[in-house]
Amino acid sequence: MIIETQSWGKLEVNKEQLYHFSKGIPGFDDETDFALIALADTPFWYLQSVKSDGLAFLLGDPFTFYPSYEFELPDDEAEELAIGSEVIVRCILTLKEQTEHSTINLLAPIVLNPVTQTGKQIVLHRAPYHTKHSLLQEQPLTDGKDGG
């Protein structure tokens, strides 16, 4: 399948790269189909909208940046995504001009089922994370009440 992207122009993606988000991503409810595009030899991916060429999220492997990152996926979310033994967890990154200010959103990971090719951004309500953890070094986890 060929999709249009703002960053790379026309891009060919395989069926295995396509993920359906039944409820979209918060703030982008009408965007339900995305291609997961790996950046070779890096812990980064792009989640590119199939419908809107200008909508793409930079994702990172949270376990690369925060090896102690963990959370329990709520049963209803696991059921909705039909999570079995295979799951992919990625988090949205925000890059800043000054690299040391770049952040990773550990509070709302993107959870993907590679078997059913479905995905959802899950907000962790009882977790010590927030939306703006430093990307460059693992920070001590707080209770999430620091306004971040």
From TrEMBL:
Subunit structure: Interacts with translational regulator CsrA and flagellin(s).
One of the Pfam families matching this protein, by short name: FliW
Entry GO CC: cytoplasm
Protein name, as recorded: Flagellar assembly factor FliW
Entry keyword set: Bacterial flagellum biogenesis, Cell projection, Chaperone, Cilium, Cytoplasm, Flagellum, Translation regulation
InterPro entries: Flagellar_assembly_factor_FliW, Flagellar_assmbl_FliW_dom_sf
SUPFAM superfamilies recorded: BH3618-like
Family label: Belongs to the FliW family.
Coiled coil: none
Organism whose genome encodes this protein: Paenibacillus donghaensis
Listed transmembrane segments: none
Described function: Acts as an anti-CsrA protein, binds CsrA and prevents it from repressing translation of its target genes, one of which is flagellin. Binds to flagellin and participates in the assembly of the flagellum.
Compartment(s) of residence: Cytoplasm
UniProt entry tagged with the keyword Phosphoprotein: no
Gene that encodes it: fliW
A Gene Ontology BP annotation from the UniProt entry: bacterial-type flagellum assembly
